[in-house]
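Objective 1b of the project was to move from sequence-level analysis to a structural picture of ligand recognition. The entry below was assembled by the postdoctoral researcher (A.K.) and checked by the PI before modelling. It contains the amino acid sequence of the target and the SMILES of the bound compound, pyridoxal-5'-phosphate.
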Amino acid sequence: MENEQKLIMLPGPTNVSERVMKAMLRPVINHRGDSFRELYKGILGKTQHLFQTQGSTIVFSSSGTGGVEAAVWNIIRPGDAAVVPVFGEFSGRLAETVEGAGGHALQVKSDFGKVPSLDQLREAMDSLGKFKALFLVHNETSTGVAAPYVREACKMARDHGAFAVVDAISSLGGYAIPVDDWGVDMCITGSQKCIAAPPGLALVSVSDRVKDFLKSSPPQTRYFDIPRYLEYGARGETPFTPALPLFYALDEALKELLEEGLTKRVQRHDAMSALLYDGLAAIGLKPVAEKSVRSKTVVASYYPEGVDDAMFRKLMSHDSGIVVAGGFGPFAGKVFRVGCMGQVNENFVNRTLKAVKDTLGSAKTS
Ligand SMILES: Cc1ncc(COP(=O)(O)O)c(C=O)c1O
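Corresponding predicted holo structure:
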């Protein structure tokens, strides 16, 4: 049946609790009224815990890509140079977004499955001397690789007088990224990943440095005009009509996150990803990522010889009720990806491992 609830082991969206789903049934209210102001102020307070910041946060009624566009279009002006480590689909898109905003993206590349080294980043930054920003994808969802040097790379960018922007869409909440402590000027995440809310919202932190810059250089975007969001946010409003049911859900999901505690949630992601990697290794599967950079929230694994990707995922879904993702770009057909996010627990992981083991044999073409 199409709408039957499956176990969603995708790298987002991920499983959402009944408590969070039910929150979306609350009444439609005036988004210029006190009840909404209270709701949104409460959400902003909770996102400050998530980002570990005393600074400003914003929730956009958009998917994660909107948050990335907001960061790029608020920071980049035509002719600006930016450093963009490119090691998969999402970091590639980020470089294109910088170019689309009229900037020049100096791409620092590595093979997929690896990350560019800090030395490569330093070399790129030094070669430019002056540049506007580093745009770093923390967790490359397309390859299951996480950059292990967010703090160091951001410091390097700031030492060059540049802004440090981190796309943590598929990692924040499963990883801790204390943005104030690590000097992250803008960090972006999405509602549908480690926060375990439904898809459709982007959460963004904004440093005082970015706010100061925007005072003298207003952005050329209306929907993602950050100064406007901050002005409205100060009184608990959004400039444009918010996706109200999703805001209710986000509030509830953030409550769940804070009830568990960020530290414990991160530890749970550590433990569940270790269980997943060990279990896949026991089945004889090889992860895409090198061990030192393998992601704790997205586990990408090569198929053994002769397994049909489409058939494997179809059987996983139909026979075991478990949804996993295929590979991206050069990995299409060769790799499957399992999300280890949000609500993930031992039961989810063990069910997934059993289903993978049972299904691999049936999905062999040779
Ligand atoms: C690292 C990363 N960046 C950007 C995106 C785009 O987010 P969305 O699909 O919510 O627009 C994703 C989505 O998976 C992602 O994983």
